[in-house]
Amino acid sequence: MVRLDWGVEETPEMWASCITVADCPEPHPAAWPTGHVCTLVSTSFSERAGPEVLDYLNKRAWSNDTVGKPMARMTDNQATGEEGAIQFLKENEAAWTPWVTPEAAEKIKASL
After folding, report:
1. C-alpha closest to that of 19 among 7, 30, 35
2. For 48-103, what is each residue's pLDDT tens digit?
3. Nearest Cα to Cα of residue 99 among 55, 68, 64
């Protein structure tokens, strides 16, 4: 994924005080502010999912480049989500293997 150039500065203050407020008296162009994305879970989900799932969610992370390239390739080739996931797993072993146990990583690699 690539951040688009809107031709204006990122102005979080304008977003908070005007762009996101109905009937703002003096709106000015402002680029969408960047933010940190976190995976959040509820207590109910964490109790149902168990420690293995929470461990995975705590380890999972990727850069825009890591996820953007496979998504662009999927779009260019009209690939399915499954095809994109398989390609990602084949080409980004260093990215995803820390997310899972060594045993799970071996099973995943063997299935590819």
Report:
1. 30
2. 988 888 888 887 777 777 878 888 889 999 999 999 999 999 999 998 999 889 99
3. 55
Burial of 14 (C-beta count, 10 Å sphere; 0-12/13-18/19+)? buried
Report the amino acid identity of residue 45. Answer: F
pTM exceeding 0.90: no
In the chain, which residue ranges form alpha helices assigned H by DSSP? 12-14, 43-49, 51-59, 64-77, 81-91, 93-96, 102-111
- Tokens 């703002």 sit at which residue? 24
Summarised one tens digit per residue, pLDDT across range 15-39 is 788 888 888 888 888 887 777 666 6
Of 74, 102, 63, 70, the residue nearest 89 (C-alpha)? 70
